[in-house]
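Friendly challenge for the regulars: who can give me the structure tokens for this chain first? No prize, just bragging rights.
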Amino acid sequence: MNKPVMAALIAAGMAFLASLVSFLSWWRIHADRWSIRWPGRSAPVDFPHSTHLMVEAKPRLEDVRFLEEGLYEFNARATGISDGKLLSLFVRTPDGSPIAGAFGWTWGGTCYIRYLFVAENMRGHGQGTMLMRAIQKEANSRDCRQIVLETFDFQAFAFYQKFGFEEVGRVEDYPLGHQYLILVKRLP
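First reply, four minutes later:
Bragging rights claimed.
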């Protein structure tokens, strides 16, 4: 397998793990909109050694942090790369309210963007372009070789293509009738 394909597969795998942790963080904030229950299970599932498994619709932030920190520590030990830094950018109104922003991190020569959002009434006014340029500038300043992100086919795929992102992975029917896309932009 050639190096670019291997790098893309590794980036996609890392992005998937990061997405899982980020989803758990997102779920903690939005879980009150849905509830998930296992039929017939209201008590924890018991495991040996006094442990038990709980399905939680609203995990505690400190528990999600436990997952994030544990994954980062494992990844740093496994790769020998421990240069991870969070990255967040926000466009704010004069009163400090966010109208657009991006959140992610840099690690191991990659800038990963987990969230990029522009309020609907601000779309088409250059806020997304400003964010993408700032992300690329910051990624370059952190010696990143690529930017990785995910989107859905109904979100901003065409927007990212204008900035040179290429599709390196796709999950069909997530959500049903749509595609989940993994995109990469190589940096000079």
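The mean pLDDT is 85. The chain has four helices and eight strands. Your move, everyone else.
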